[in-house]
Structure formats: C-alpha cells, structure tokens
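Hey, quick one: can you model this chain's 3D structure?
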Amino acid sequence: MPIAWFICLYKLSEQRVLGKPVRYCAMDDFTQDIIYKDKGNWAESEILGNKAVVKVSASEETIKKVSETKDFEQLDITDIKATLTVEQQTDITSKAVGIGYTTADISAKSLVTQKDALELLTSYRRKPRYDADTDTVILDGVVQVCRSIDDVDSAVRE
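Sure thing. Here's the predicted structure for all 158 residues.
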C-alpha cells in the first residue's frame, strides 16, 4: 500500500470536555477512508504551529484526496533512509521556518537524510492552552518533546 507523509493542522472539535474544546489532528477527518475503506493506517507527531507531521498508509485515491485538501501539505519524503536532494532540503527548511522553527534550530541540525528533515520538524513543540475568553487554543506554553519519527514510522507500515 502506498505511503505518504503530510503536514496538517490540529483542529477544534465541537465536542467539549470540562467546557474546553477537544483538539485533534485533522488527518482524523480521513480515518474512515484510510482505516476502514483502505485498511491502512496513520500516525502523527505534533509539531510547532498547531500542526502535525503525519505518516499515512492508504490507497493512491485516498492519498490524492488528502493532498488536494486545504491545509494539508504532502511532503516529498519517499524513504526516510534516503539522502535529501538540494530541492528537498530547501523545501523542508522553508516549511520549518514557516511553522516557527528558527534559523538556529535549522542550523543545529545536519540535514542529510529524509529522516533528518522529519526530525527537524519534530524537534520540539509548545504546550497548548485554552483561552476561554476568546474560545481559542494558544500555543505559547513550555517547550515539549514531540513523538519521535522512529515511533511514527514504525506505527505505519506498507
């Protein structure tokens, strides 16, 4: 089954727990297709910018459907052990800056393999907090560890 890597948003559910909205990875909107229709799987690691890096195993049709959905970016990752091309390195660096990683964060990483690029994106995140006055989630909390790329990768197989 085809594999694809994406960056997507976290969303707020209409469901509330203790008066607060439930945050969820937007890939969950495709769970019906990915898991039940295609018999595939997906796993995510929350990153900066209210986003997640997600690995998906699904049909070509479902992957295309996800990639064409607003706020879903398919990453040019084919094999995490493969060497990054110059174009991939430029693209991942641009995406990292776009979601809030600093040039210092990027300079601290050696971007040789596709796995290195994913590890850059999962370097750290900020703890979210709910602001009841504005009914929004604010991402300015303490720095937190992201789920490892190895864990995400092993959770989803072809």
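One thing worth noting: The CA atoms of residues 106 and 120 lie 7 Å apart.
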